[in-house]
Amino acid sequence: MNVGDTLAPLEIPVTRTLIVAGAIASRDYQDVHHDASLAREKGSPDIFMNILTTNGLVGRYITDRLGPGAVLRKVAIRLGAPNYPGDTMVLTGTVVAVDGDRVEIRVVGANGIGHHVTGTVTVTVTGMGTGAATGTAAASAEVAA
Q1: In this structure, are residues 132 and 66 in contact, taking their beta carbons and an 8 Å threshold?
Q2: Which of 57, 102, 111, 129 suits a disulfide with 87, CB 3.0-4.6 Å?
Q3: What is the three-state SS of the chain?
């Protein structure tokens, strides 16, 4: 893995179920994540994805692409355009630094109205070069706060 390498993109359909399930799983009961009429009362055209769901999807993207030897060490993201139901978010990644088994990847998640998420993920990868960027599923991941 080298600086400048890109990871295969991941398309994620943004459904109502994904938005609501992510909010429930992260115990985020804000009405803007599950009640369309209350979200509209607050100025949003519909419910929208919360940051914890986005964070989980970014982590999944990296570990799926780097394989079972990947362990998340740091996820630093910033939200932009909301993810509304019916859209698709496309995650892309570019390697920006490599130091031994530690890799830093710049991640962008774009939807129909712009960049939903931008940030960097630092990951250690055991067995670097075996299965990296193949899209294999990771067995587990650890996120440091």
Answers
A1: yes
A2: 111
A3: CCCCCEEEEEEEECCHHHHHHHHHHCCCCCHHHCCHHHHHHCCCCCCCCCHHHHHHHHHHHHHHHHCCCEEEEEEEEEECCCCCCCCEEEEEEEEEEEECCEEEEEEEEEECCEEEEEEEEEEEECCCCCCCCCCCCCCCCCCCC
> What's the pLDDT band for 127 if we cut at 50, 70, 90?
confident
CA distance 92 to 118: 10
Starting at the earlier edge strand, list the strands of the sheet with 102-111: 6-13, 88-99, 102-111, 114-125, 70-79
Longest distance between any two alpha carbons in the chain, whole Å: 51
Report phi then psi at 53, rounded to 5: -65, -45
Per-residue burial over 89-119, b = 16 or more CB atoms within 10 Å of its CB, e = otherwise: bebbbebeebeeeebbbebbbbbeeeebbeb
